[in-house]
Amino acid sequence: MASYKLLLLPGDGIGPEVMAEAEKLIAWFNAQGIARFEIERGLVGGSAYDAHGKAISESDMALAMASDAVLFGAVGGPKWDKVPYEVRPEAGLLRLRKDLGLFANLRPAICYPALADASSLKREVVEGLDILIVRELTGGVYFGEPKTITDLGNGQKRGIDTQVYETYEIERISRVAFDLALTRRNKVSSAEKRNVMKTGVLWNEVVTRIHAAEYPKVTLEHVLADNCAMQLVRWPKQYDVIVTDNLFGDVLSDVAAMLTGSLGMLPSASLGAPDARSGRRKSLYEPVHGSAPDIAGTGAANPIAMIASFGMALRYSLGLGDWATKLDQAIAAVLARGIRTRDIAGDQPPNATTTQMGAAILDEFKKLA
Ligand code: NAD
Fold first, then answer.
1. For the chain, what are the domain ranges?
2. Which CATH architecture describes the domain 130-259?
3. pTM, whole model, 2 decimals?
4. Alpha-carbon distance 66 to 214, whole Å?
5. 152: CA distance to ligand 1 center in Å?
6. Which of 172, 180, 330, 347 is the most exposed place for a label (fewest CB within 10 A)?
7. How many whole angstroms separate alpha carbon 177 and alpha carbon 60?
8. CB neighbours (10 Å) of residue 15?
9. pLDDT 10s digit of each residue in the chain, 369 long?
């Protein structure tokens, strides 16, 4: 039986509440003998600051480096608004991304039929939607130098950010996108702005070369990033995998997210380079939402984003893709039965708390298993 090391970092606010529901699934896998998950637990964000004066301790960083996958809840909250900048809760997540070398951010946008009416778009546009945005996470304009604000001395200032990409960064993110497309519907849409940006010209050139040399079976199309944003709200089902840079990915993944309704539904994965010997990638899985201090402790948090993030770990890090599919089916079945936490209840009163939603998904999952 395969054995995997998982590090659980629940974090702050609703993080521990939603993580507890994912842990019940993990315990079930272990009890059934389907896989052997060795669990370690650590602190991140405000809870780590309270315990260690840092957003993540060195010993928890060492556990993260040694794990097959990190499951991350959420960090932050008003309690830590005034802590020093370098130890603020988000610094824990940034440190994890940096030290684990997580350069590929995967954000699926899936619209469950039972929630199609919760979207701001028409049912026929979003029903059955299943697309994946692959965003480059460690390069581009958020990190390029120079990055300055200069006083020009005449009452004016000049702000500069620098968009930089090198060949290897585009090669590795495009390989992630093509590999994922091979497990889905075999189509990659690469979004950039080659009409006005040199990085866009290079991006287009490198993606085209990697496609021709290594992935002839995948269909590749190029789309200008602004047109991609428009197409996402016009007819999103034309896409399968969208690969794009850090800045455009930030915007396009939020547009795609809102096609599907609540923040409480959205999982994500961040992947690093494959290890030369084992082929395994460093990885971190987390819901897109934050720590939701406004509902923490009330039982109103929707655990689906966290549970679906664990599902992504099954698929992308733990070699259990068939079980990930069953977990997606269990979530769809629970939604089809009309079980709703507050965020997805629409005009109706909610009929499930965090633990009730988690229990309902586990029950459906057991039936499918
Ligand atoms: P948020 O995502 O925490 O909450 C936004 C809104 O969505 C809130 O009304 C919240 O109640 C609701 N919501 C979020 N997740 C939900 C869930 N699972 N179920 C039901 N409702 C849910 O964003 P925010 O309010 O802007 O930020 C709160 C804190 O979280 C801040 O400290 C922020 O810095 C932090 N944050 C952390 C992360 C992260 O850990 N990756 C991401 C975003 C924000």
1. 1-108+265-369, 130-259
2. 3-Layer(aba) Sandwich (3.40)
3. 0.93
4. 31
5. 39
6. 347
7. 30
8. 30
9. 778 999 999 999 999 999 999 999 999 999 999 999 999 999 999 999 999 999 999 999 999 999 999 999 999 999 999 999 899 999 999 999 999 999 999 999 999 888 988 888 999 999 999 999 999 999 999 999 999 999 999 999 999 999 999 999 999 999 999 999 999 999 999 999 999 999 999 999 999 999 999 999 999 999 999 999 999 999 999 999 999 999 999 999 989 888 887 789 999 999 999 888 888 899 999 999 999 999 999 999 999 999 999 999 999 999 899 999 999 999 999 999 999 999 999 889 999 999 999 999 999 999 998
Known catalytic membership, residue 161: no
Q: Is 226 a catalytic residue?
A: yes
* Structure tokens, 307: 């549970």
Q: For a substitution probing ligand 1, which of 85, 90, 263 has the most ligand atoms within 8 Å of its CB?
A: 263
Domain at 1-108+265-369: CATH code: 3.40.718.10
Q: Is-same-fold flag (1-108+265-369; 130-259)?
A: yes
DSSP, collapsed to helix, strand or coil, labels residue 220 as strand
CA 200 – CA 183 distance, rounded (Å): 27
- Using the structure block, give the residue that is written with the tokens 């586990």: 362
> Kindly report the CA angle at 164 between 227 and 241, in degrees rounded to 5?
40
